[in-house]
Q: What sequence folds into this?
């Protein structure tokens, strides 16, 4: 079997399904488990730190782990940064067959920090009886020093290991989401997958076709190649609920502008209200949060890293006049519009109809924490003997 620790809403599982395989996911979050169930994924709802390794001994082909990132993420309160030495100590002790978790957990500022050491508990136990053929791990970039520690231990277990940073956009994900990756194998040389995309398209050469240009949000969402596509409206307010995203009167003015523009929705898009663009006048972008230094990307570009969890991290569509100073009455700039869960999921390369469970806040948190399935597939394919990459990782197609 393939064991997926901290399986979340199914980023790895969906990738495996497209590649013709499946895993058993261990996950604690209630709504992520419900999403997985609705997607038909095998799941054990459990605390990974408390679940025994014995059921997997001698039966595990591959181990996947994307542990919670609170100790390493640049977002949030960052209390986990103070816990990083404790996580490194836990990994070292667990690799040596000791279990210091109770003592170290009492010293942690954030009780979730020590979860990043749990994969080593599994790896150590599995190593004693028919260790996995391969291991794949993924997390935020600042996790790389921890992955290097894991790599050192795994080499001692007889694995070939590669660690490094990969940009999701280089593999067709419409998002410049950089992640720290660990790849380990007992049967082949571990190495990163070959990028399929680049910031600028590359011409064909004697060595084969060049890399394609990064996938834009417009292409992924099925809004065409124009920089004037129409973002959709989250009809019930923001990810956490709340008021309508339009102030009084602005919905009608937007509707009037829409009627004078043209837009062809993607055939698989769910029916919901749309915000119009002014013909020749506006350019839509996605803004990743509400801060002054928020990452803002045009629809003709990949999104920045999507992350959710508190109000300042809400992603919104914003429109600006493409011709500064224009007096055209179609260049009335609408208010920012919150991104929908469906759109966010597509930008993570989940299917547009992926069955996200829970309220808006719970759905967005799952999406932000998930590994993009398209990136996951590139990481998993060599271990599964997949010789070609199915090109159906959403892109709203």
A:
């Amino acid at each position: 079997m393939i064991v997926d620790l901290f399986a979340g809403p199914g980023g790895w599982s969906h990738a495996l399904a497209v590649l013709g395989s499946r895993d058993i996911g261990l996950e604690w979050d209630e709504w992520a488990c419900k999403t997985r169930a609705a997607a038909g994924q095998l799941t054990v709802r459990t605390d990974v730190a408390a679940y025994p390794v014995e059921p997997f001994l001698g039966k595990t082909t591959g181990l996947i782990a994307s542990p919670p990132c609170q100790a390493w993420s640049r977002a949030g309160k960052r209390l986990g940064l103070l816990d990083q030495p404790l996580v490194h100590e836990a990994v070292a002790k667990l690799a040596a067959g000791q279990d210091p978790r109770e003592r170290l957990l009492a010293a942690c500022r954030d009780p979730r920090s020590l979860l990043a050491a749990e994969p080593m508990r599994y790896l150590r136990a599995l190593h004693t009886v028919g260790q996995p053929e391969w291991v794949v791990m993924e997390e935020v970039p600042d996790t790389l020093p921890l992955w290097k520690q894991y790599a050192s231990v795994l080499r001692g277990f007889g694995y070939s290991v590669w660690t490094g940073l990969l940009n999701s956009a280089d593999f067709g994900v419409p998002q410049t989401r950089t992640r720290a990756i660990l790849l380990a194998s007992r049967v082949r040389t571990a190495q990163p997958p070959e990028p399929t995309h680049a910031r600028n398209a590359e011409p064909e050469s004697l060595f084969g076709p060049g890399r394609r240009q990064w996938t834009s949000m417009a292409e992924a969402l099925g809004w065409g190649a124009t920089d004037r596509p129409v973002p959709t409206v989250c009809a019930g307010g923001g990810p956490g609920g709340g008021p309508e995203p339009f102030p009084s009167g602005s919905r009608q003015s937007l509707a009037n502008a829409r009627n004078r523009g043209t837009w062809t929705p993607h055939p698989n898009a769910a029916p919901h209200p749309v915000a119009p663009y002014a013909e020749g006048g506006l350019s839509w972008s996605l803004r990743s949060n509400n801060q002054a230094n928020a990452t803002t990307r045009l629809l003709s570009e990949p999104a920045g890293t999507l992350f959710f969890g508190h109000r300042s991290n809400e992603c919104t569509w914003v429109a600006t006049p493409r011709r500064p100073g224009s007096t055209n009455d179609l260049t009335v700039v609408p208010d920012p519009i919150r991104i929908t869960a469906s759109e966010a999921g597509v930008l993570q390369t989940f299917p547009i109809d992926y069955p996200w469970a829970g309220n808006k806040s719970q759905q967005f948190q799952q999406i932000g924490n998930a590994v993009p399935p398209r990136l996951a597939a590139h990481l998993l394919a060599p271990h599964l003997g997949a010789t070609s990459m199915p090109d159906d990782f959403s892109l709203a197609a």
Remarks:
- Residues 18 and 392 are 8 Å apart (CA to CA).
